[in-house]
Amino acid sequence: MTAGAADERWLAWQTIDTGRLVLLSVTSTLVIVAVAQTAAVHFQGAHLVAIAFGLYIAFGELLRLVLPGGRVAAPIAMSAALSYAMVLQVAPHHRLMNVPALQVVVVAAAGMAIGSIPHIAAGRRAGVTGMSARLVAVACVAFIFHPLSRHLFTMPRPAFIPMAILAMLGWLIETVISAIIRADDLRARYSVTLADELRVQWRLGLAVGVAAIITVYGAEVMGIAELAVFAGPLLVIQFAFRRYAGIRATYLQTVRALAQVTEVGGYVESGHSRRVSRLALAIGRELGMPEPDLLNLEYAALMHDIGQLSLVEPIPGGATLLVSPAEARRIAEYGAEVIRQTGVLDAVAELVRWQWLPASGGLRTPPLGSMVIGVANVFDDLVGGSADRDKIAAALDRLKLAAGTEYEPIVVAALASVTARLPISRL
Amino acid sequence: MGRLSLLTWFYVAAVVTAAAAVLVRVPVGGVPTGFWIVCVGLALLFLVCDSSPITLGPGQWVWSPSSAATLAAVVLLGHLGGYGAAIVGAVAVFSVRRGLQLVERLFNGAMYALAGFAAGMTYHMLNGKAFIDITQLNGVMTGGNTIPYKIFEMSLWPFAAAAVVHVLVNHGLLWGMLLLDRRTRASARLTPDWSLPLLLSSDLGFAALGLVIAVLWVVLGPFASAIVLVPLYVARWAMGQFADQQRAHAATLSALCQAVETKDFYTRGHSERVSRGAGMIARQTGMRSDRAEAVEFAGMLHDVGKLGVPTRVLQKEGSLTEEEFAAIQLHPMRGLEIVREIGFLNEALSGIVHHHERMDGRGYPMGFAGQEIPEFARIIAVADAFDSMTSTRAYRKAIRISDAISELRKGAGTQFDPKFVDAFVEALRRDGWKPQEPALPGSHQILTSQDHDDPFNPPRLEGT
After folding, report:
1. Based on the domain organization, do A164 and A236 belong to the same domain?
2. CA B108 from chain center: how many Å?
3. Partner B contacted by A159 (CB < 8 A)
């Protein structure tokens, strides 16, 4: 037992990847330098303003948002931090022209740290990586803005276009960092995760940037009260995104649960659809599929056996390997028909429909997703939930023999590298 | 909205007349051009907001942040704010929205005009100041000004009061309309599809945006103040996605349930109908709409566990062995096994597990009696038995709805909860019922000789 536990710990340590380590060390150095510098030269500018913005950042960090794909965002915190990095004047009489960029880092870091305490207290993740990404982005904006503000910006009011460019830059930096971390986490290709990240985040990023600019102008007239006045609309936006992310998660949960009907009915082995979907996802990532395709792949893999419901009696052991091609085709087509009934999952139905088709020499070339599901399905039929290395090697050999005819070679190769890298249980 | 009752017509006429009385008092000749520029700019903003509302629920509930534009007029114009806001609000008559009848348009315009006027008057009476000097045309057009902090400070609380007045007038007039409208309809109960406190607070939250728009106008000019639309559109996108995903989710759930039913020809459409029936009962008893929706989901999924019952048991003619009967009795628990991980179901799970309990305690799986049985399960039991009786089975034809109703009444108290039987009968009388369509099974269909739901032919144990 102890050896196993040590193994686990070693694996957990290994999951802290290079990207994350670099990010964390950069951020901690930044924070230490910033705190030391700020303490040495005394706090510049209004204390009240710094405290108000710091608390607002903490408030935003408290209201983190889980977006589809398990991404954690803190839009309100990010917009508050960006606006503090660019604000030059706060009514009635606070002037922040001489605030050094490092002080912005201190205030943002303090706000984020305070905001993450309730999360830690509630037993959730502290979200250090996400906060680091935001902090580095804000620091970059502050480092560019503050030296330039003396020359480029008409005093006392910063100009709109340069501010918009800077806000966009801040968002880009955060997105790029998140994409690097995500590529490490998911073992996916960096270019793919960056495209995914940009696609998922751009709307929220736009709202965050514009909100930051509105805050800068608003604070000039309304002072700190602006933060309270503008909180209402920001909360409504946050609420809208929360509901959207919530229903996305529910949808996935429902499909995952209902895909088990074939298992409860004794049509397939218990846990089969879940394992096939995990394996298919891992292969899809290895092949560099973008996120929307991966979502369709996951749905299709979960429901790939739904067509077996049309059988009077379950196939022995549930293995689709054992049925004739004609029967496999009928089952697949029936399953696709069921999924098409939903009216919204046509792409998923297409993947399920062609899963029986050989990679070459058939009616047509099946969609990549179908071939991935086909390979994952056969692999799971052969190996099951077992972590036995010999069994896995034998199954891979069998798949490799038929690669090029029955199965697509690049899919089989992807499966081989996925299984070599990770134990089945950790997929 | 359909046909309106006489009372509703009077109500609409009164509101429109009041708004017209306000609008004719606008001192058309005696205001500087700046007033009109502010009105036109904010009216455009209002139109854009009001033409792209966010759908909040399945009914007519739409919501838009357009009141922010009206309130911006209140702040920008000061003592003329009431008239300006009334003009901006009246623009709602022209919103680009499909399916709005002329009466609805007129009512909306009048409602927003009155709410704006009331807010403007409140602001002025509480000594709120104008943020812009409308006699300085240059300042109105280009921005570049600022507002002395003292003026802002003096105006903050009057603005808050104006926002509250706006929200109250707006919702008060709207609820008057809804109350009158609903009363003329068959469904007597007023169940909001969206919780009122949430609606009020989000309206107040967006009302605050009026102040932000006004400040941006002063600082950046009329066009730049439109950047507030960007975050609004992002929120709208997210809400739209939410609605799409919710529809997709419901469709997927229903399609998968239908797939489960293919195992048995005679029960096709059963889940769908039980879901509908359970929803009818829930709404009739005045259940909150989110709970009624959950009952519908539970009704949809109540028999999903039947898949765990071997086909040969379902097909068996005559009596069942004890083991086979046990297999049938297990289906609610098998159902739970499948849907347990679906987080949103919560209360619906208990409805699935206990839908075969009886009021006299002789049901399964737990043998609960009376109020021990979860509410959802008592509702589903009624709809379930009713649909089973009114559907054709291999061993009998469907029975008439009136006979099924008297059968339900007979079982009230022993098998069913009388409260829900009454509610169902009432709902059936009003809305009617579309039973299973009679059709002949094809040759490849699986035919079962058992229906565990059927109160006439409950599964019989061998030797009893």
Report:
1. yes
2. 20
3. no
CA distance B433 to B405: 12
The structure's pTM equals 0.82
Q: Do residues A329 and A408 both lie within one domain?
A: yes
Per residue in A142-201, pLDDT tens?
A: 988 887 777 655 555 667 888 889 999 999 999 999 999 888 888 788 888 899 899 888
Give burial (CB, 10 Å; 0-12/13-18/19+) of A71.
middle
Which residues from chain A sit within 8 angstroms of residue B235, using beta carbons?
207, 236-237, 240-241
Q: Does B304 touch chain A (CB under 8 A)?
A: yes
Q: Which residue of B232, B245, B271 to mutate against A (max A Cβ within 10 Å)?
A: B245
Q: What stretches in chain B show pLDDT beneath 50?
A: 1, 59-60, 184-193, 443-444, 464
The answer to whether B305 touches B336, Cβ cutoff 8 Å, is yes
Q: Do A221 and B215 touch (CB under 8 A)?
A: yes
B447 in A contact zone (CB under 8 Å): no
Residue range(s) defining the domain that contains residue A159? 13-252
Q: Are residues A369 and A238 in the same domain?
A: no
The interface predicted TM-score of the complex, written ipTM, equals 0.83
Do residue B343 and residue A214 have CB atoms under 8 angstroms apart? no
B57 Rama class: left (phi>0) / alpha (psi -120 to 50) / beta: beta
**Residue-wise pLDDT tens digits, B3-21:** 667 888 899 999 999 999 9
Q: Which residue type does B356 have?
A: H
pLDDT tens across A246-261, in order? 888 888 888 888 888 8
Comparing alpha-carbon positions, the chain B residue that sits nearest to A231 is B205
CB B326 within 8 A of CB B382: no
Between CA A166 and CA A84 the distance in angstroms is: 13
Give one DSSP letter per residue of A255-291, joined into a string. Answer: HHHHTTHHHHTTSS-TTHHHHHHHHHHHHHHHTT--H
- Among A220, A252, A284, which residue terminates a domain? A252
Query: Of A199, A223, A252, which closes a domain?
Result: A252
Token pair recorded at residue B110: 């009048």
- DSSP structure string for A193-211: HHHHHHHHHHHHHHHHHHH
| Cβ contact A190:A183 at 8 Å | yes
Residues 6 or more apart whose CB falls under 8 angstroms from that of A99 comprise: A44, A45, A146
- A254 — contact with chain B (CB < 8 Å)? yes
A128 in the same domain as A227 = yes
